[in-house]
Amino acid sequence: MRKLRITLAQINTTVGDLCGNVDKALDAVREAESLGSDLVIFPELTVSGYPPEDLLLKPGFIKGNRSALERFVENVGDITAVIGFVDGSGPIYNAAAVVNRGEIRCTHHKMNLPNYGVFDEKRYFAEGETPQSFMLGDIAVGLNICEDTWVGDCPYCSLYSDHHVDLLLNLSASPFHTGKVHERAEMLRRRSLEGNTCIAYTNLVGGQDELVFDGGSMIYNRRGDCLVNGPLFSDAMITHDIVFDGDSPKSVPESARITLAETSKAPLKPLQSSEMSADEEILEALVLGTRDYIRKNGFSRVVIGLSGGIDSTLVAAVAVQALGKENVVGVTMPSKYTSDGTRSDAEILANNLGIEFHEIPVSTAFDAFKDSLSGLFAGRDEDVTEENLQARVRGMLLMALSNKFGWLVLTTGNKSEMATGYATLYGDMAGGFASIKDVPKLTVFRLCWLFNEQAGSEIIPESVITRPPSAELRPDQKDSDSLPEYDILDPILKAYIEDDMGVDNIVALGFDRDTVKRIVRLCDLTEYKRRQAPPGVKITPRAFGRDRRLPITNRFRP
Length: 558
What we know:
This protein is α/β, with parallel strands linked by helices and 558 residues long. It folds into two domains: 2-260, Nitrilase/N-carbamoyl-D-aminoacid amidohydrolase; 279-531, Rossmann fold, CATH 3.40.50. Helix content is 36%, strand content 18%. The chain has helices at residues 18-34, 59-74, 147-150, 180-195, 278-296, 310-323, 340-353, 363-377, 384-405, 415-420, 441-455, 462-466, 486-498, 503-508, 513-525, 527-531, and strands spanning 2-10, 39-41, 80-87, 93-100, 103-109, 133-136, 139-145, 167-172, 198-203, 205-208, 211-214, 218-220, 226-229, 236-244, 257-258, 302-305, 328-332, 356-359, 408-411, 433-434. The strands form four sheets. A seven-stranded mixed β-sheet has the order 13-12-9-8-7-6-15. Helix 4 (180-195) links the parallel strand 8 and strand 9 (198-203). The longest helix has 22 residues, at 384-405. The termini are far apart.
């Protein structure tokens, strides 16, 4: 009976923090050694962080990444470690190094480079040509990196089938979106059956700009059974003993043969289940993405314009979970159109969350701007100009607080608003990070109910969730004055943005043609706004930003 104790080191790296990333990796090596692991596996591009983007065009970055890798190699002893790095000796490769006893025993170059959605690896990397495998004791181990496993018809799959390897290692940086956890699990199950091999999959965890990596590292046996499933949205060391049946494969190309060291095997604790509902996953992604963006960019506190509406409420709730109540500041900025209910709800929410709270009325500043413009605006009725002016006054006040105190402004627009332009450029779009910019309005409602459910009390006042949404920029204003009800709007937007459906196909789903045409037109015309919006957490299969890159100057109409 052949056995192997392996550890999946699911760690949170930072792009460009070469020394810090290696320090984390070496800490994980020490922990794996203390458990008696024979093998520790890290995520894709652990040394550089993922995705490094145009840092890869800087020779100094490639050189620094190599120096950091060498320090890692020097400090690895009897345990075998497989770590992702940028191999820049000649062409640049997305690579994985097998390290043992102070040496790199073999290197795999990623063969399938994703170039869709948020990925553009062909801009930077050369494609690997030869899959690598090695012998670890009497266990035959194959190597691949992320997309190498997602591609089902890859030309080298035969290497991993017919008992050619016992174990396939996949180093991954697979970003989260709704449904991705189950897609990933099903893909690994199929690959283990197709390749007749065990698969150990280590995924990155953490936020990087708009992307969130959810972890969820897994091990599958050759029968397609999940042996262990790591936690979602948190660092973890997932250690498991794999038992291999049958004889050792004889036909593996031996680029390296590593002798297993005698190790004392510490007792292993069972892992907690990582099962979550779709909305629980989204909420955890928002918290992790917000926390990492703020912390990794050197901020400690945030400020939020609390309107008493549901969007700013969710942003504040997420910020408190991400940073702690002591690091969140809420500011209500009432105008003459602000209702007593929303003003009261903003204060109740701040008290329930335990955050610092301030009130800055905007009427004086708003009147001053109108007075300055009165000459040019003489004879013209008030319209959306004055509505936007109020939002811009609020944006200026929040940015002044940011400048004075070093607080990062969190904007509060949701995906439905970002899609249709129902947000004010340089107003409620002004800030440093947009936590919920990829969260449709209907999901915002569900997440607020979920937050209260998890808290076990009404932290978010029920009136905030049930009150008809309003920007409160004119008397008795409601969102439905300008937009369809959200149970109509959100499905239309999903069909157009995420599913690339045209007007006719969306109408065929049962929606009114004039409504569909109006929403599609709004979405297309506000591309220029979205280009100027701050980054925010991606939680849908196609978010605005890296996922969707349409020209601003564009006369095509679907």
